[in-house]
Amino acid sequence: MKVTEEEIRPEKVFNEYLALANQDVLDFFGNTERKEIDCPVCGIRGVDWANKSGFNYQICHKCLSIYVSPRPPKEAFDAYYTDSPSTRYWATTFYKVTETARREKLWKPKAQLIKDRILSLDQKDPIEYIIDIGGGYGVFDEEITAIMDIAPIVIEPSVHLQEVCRGKGLKVIGKFMEDIEPGELPSGRKCFVSFELFEHLYDPALFLKTVLDCMNARDIFIFTTLSGIGLDIQVLGEHAKALSPPHHLNFLNPKSVSTLLTKIGFEVLDASTPGKLDVDILKNNRQYIKDEFWKNVIAYSNESELGSIQQFIAGSGLSSHMMITCRKPAI
Ligand SMILES: [Zn+2]
User: Fold this and answer.
1) How far is the CA of 171 from the centre of ligand 1 (A)?
2) Those residues with Cβ within 8 angstroms of residue 255's Cβ, 6 or more apart along the chain or in another chain
3) Ligand 1 centre from 59 Cα, in Å?
4) What is the reported pLDDT for 1?
């Protein structure tokens, strides 16, 4: 099924959201004191890579992760995600008008993908709970329970999104993952999921430690996020839409995220980039491409050739959309 940008991100409503988000950047982050941080994977200082909307991105030359530094304090992000005009608009207006299209084109396929992945890992000892970290509107949870015998629990800090999930009869824990105590979750077998959340995290290592602490041996964690080595991000740099502060703070890559997960104690089962959109994004933003090779390749290639390039990029772990499957090792 072809997904069009207008269906999942209608221009008029999205522009209104962006206008509110721009104002929120000033209100929540404008006067905050920012601190230089080290690479979230290697702990070494990076070098400047791009600047956007007053936020500076650095790249680590050891692992090539890209991240916002200097960074405003965590409290500013917490306040922003808990209750701000743009997150309220996202929950009440933006998401509502796009929910049907998103459900059909994004969430149903995603629920099927996660179900297949869970079953491919473990058939004899079934997963009982799906813990959806940053579950937003809860559509994934509705869809996975429609095709799988599994109980969802949504972890969601936004007061507006919590309300939406509770209205759907979903079980919600209204907190940030980092504030969850191990005893707050049921003790049965669990699969944690988070979609497009990792790039927002203030402290990725702390987040992963909390998830690991809430897991029993052999529980699974599957998440999707953006990869900084991904084609469109590398080629478009500051013009990449993916670079959108204050939302996107971390762009690890399949290798660096695996290093971090292993360091924290996870067993990484798969780190791949099934992304489909990189070449399309380059095509739609060709005026920003400085690199001669990519500028000319995009102009020179026909649709079928561009399709092969996208396949090669995704298969080589070089798309900007990545998916990680890991678990807590058996002792
Ligand atoms: Zn690094």
Assistant:
1) 37
2) 63, 271, 317
3) 8
4) 55
Supply the pTM of this predicted model: 0.93
Distance 47 CA to ligand 1 centre (A): 11
**pLDDT score for 2:** 60
- d(CA 250, ligand 1 centre) in Å: 11
Say whether pLDDT at 234 is over 70.
Answer: yes
Ligand 1 centroid – CA 70 distance (Å): 16
Ligand 1 centroid to residue 270 C-alpha, Å: 20
Would you state the structure tokens that stand for residue 52, as one six-digit string? 């956007």
What DSSP assignment string belongs to 260-307?
A: HHHHHTPEEEEEE-----HHHHHHHTGGG---HHHHHHHHH--HHHHH
Beta-bridged to residue 268, according to DSSP, are: 326
pLDDT tens-digit series, residues 115-154: 999 999 876 789 999 999 999 899 999 999 999 999 999 9
CA 146 to ligand 1 center in whole angstroms: 41
Structure tokens at 249: 């703070």
Distance 114 CA to ligand 1 centre (A): 29
Query: Among 75-89, 164-178, 310-324, where is mean pLDDT lowest?
Result: 75-89
Contact of 194 with 226, CB cutoff 8 Å: no
Please give the distance, rounded to the nearest whole angstrom, from the Cα atom of residue 257 to the centre of ligand 1.
10
Per the prediction, the chain carries an average pLDDT of 93
The one-letter amino acid code at 258 reads S
Phi-psi region at 158: left, alpha or beta (left = phi > 0; alpha = psi -120 to 50): beta
